Amino acid sequence: MFRHAIVLIGGLGLFGTASAGMGVLAASPEPITTVETDDAAPSEGGAGDTGPDLESLSADPKQWPMATRDYANQRFSELDQITIDNVDELQVAWTFSLGTIRGQEAAPLVIDNVLYVVGPYPNRVFALDATTGELKWIYAPKPNPAAVGVACCDVVNRGLAYNNGKIFLNTLDAHTVAIDAATGKEIWYTKLGEINKGETITMAPMVARGKVFVGNSGGEMGVRGWLTALDENTGDIVWRAYSTGPDEDVLIGEDFEPFYDWMKGEDLGVSSWPPGHWENGGGTVWGWLSYDPELNLIFYGTANPGPWNSNQRPGDNLWTTTIFARDADSGAAKWAYVVNPHDLWDYDEINEKLSFLIWRLTGSLVKRSCILAAMASCM
């Protein structure tokens, strides 16, 4: 047995300090459960409701329950067994191939010593014993092969999500799936986009307040960006907020309070575009989401406007390359900050928004919730 371990994904490798002679461990000779989808109607929710929840898992440093580990997107682990003094003792404990040579961008989840990892298209999900590498089950969806020709930037997948005994997966052909974490069986399967319109999904979902939050890809293909919330137990769509278009579609209401006056006004997601261009104006949500449980707000950024040729879209092109804060329950926009109006350089603003607390001394000590955004525009 080893005491210290670090996981690397490409294929998949687990490295640990161990006694001499530790090498690659063979997969278990026991039959492996492989669950494949078919073209039947989406299955109904209800299974997979037993298991630890995100709140308790996030408090345990031995768990990695979401792609960024926690809602703050800090990707920080309190584990301290691997140090600068023993890192040179790491050696291979086991390896596992994901069966594809395409780009691998998904870090694994670790829940109660089970490691869950998803590969690029065709988006198979593998559950493995984190100590031995024993394969417990495989979930094999059947995404539409036409999605490969639509994806702009390789057929990657950026990770899974977990809550209450369920694994959540986004497939390249714009579906979201809930899987029983114990068995690998499908619980529900929901179509969110149309690959015939250029929509794909590559981002890692996030779960909060009983909802699964998913955004689309395809800003280079003339799509209209959105963030969608699905019911965690049924897969039903609860709300969808578009990145362009009238306030009704962007979920901008009376309580929307951007800081700058020029971002205030009615239907700016229409008037800041040439007539009709907002309908395929990009602003996709293919990156990372963060969540503040105390404020019940989701923070995320929208991607580049479309088309890339900026001469075809005079105007500020709202609400692309924008940071949004939204109510998790209703999707209502609380504030927004447009980072690159009329983006010329495909900057996107989808990078992690790290949430944290600061204390200011202004006569008295004041606690303030903040987010930190690292932007491609060097801000």
How would you describe what is shown here?
- The longest helix is centred in the N-terminal third of the chain and has 5 residues.
- The radius of gyration is 21 Å and the shape is globular.
- The N terminus is likely disordered.
- It has four helices and 22 strands.
- It folds into two domains: 180 residues, Thrombin, subunit H (Beta Barrel), CATH 2.40.10; 147 residues, Beta Barrel (Thrombin, subunit H).
- The protein has 379 residues and is mainly beta.
List how many beta strands DSSP finds: 22
User: What is the number of domains?
Assistant: 2
- Cα-to-Cα separation, first versus last residue: 47 Å
Average pLDDT, rounded to a whole number, is 87
Q: What's the CATH class of the largest domain, please?
A: Mainly Beta
SS field, number of helical segments: 4
Question: Concise description?
Answer:
With 379 residues, the chain is mainly beta.
Key descriptive features of the protein:
379 residues; mainly beta; Thrombin, subunit H; 2 domains; 5-stranded mixed β-sheet; 4-stranded antiparallel β-sheet; 4 helices; globular; disordered N terminus
Provide the fold topology:
Blueprint (H helix, E strand, L loop, with lengths): L3 E6 L2 E6 L15 E4 L17 H5 L32 E6 L12 E3 L2 E5 L6 E5 L5 E6 L5 H5 L10 E3 L2 E6 L3 E6 L5 E6 L14 E3 L2 E5 L10 E6 L5 E6 L4 H4 L17 H4 L18 E3 L4 E5 L20 E6 L5 E6 L14 E9 L3 E9 L6
Parallel strand pairs: 3-8
Antiparallel strand pairs: 1-2, 2-4, 5-6, 6-7, 7-8, 9-10, 10-11, 11-12, 13-14, 14-15, 15-16, 17-18, 18-19, 19-20, 21-22
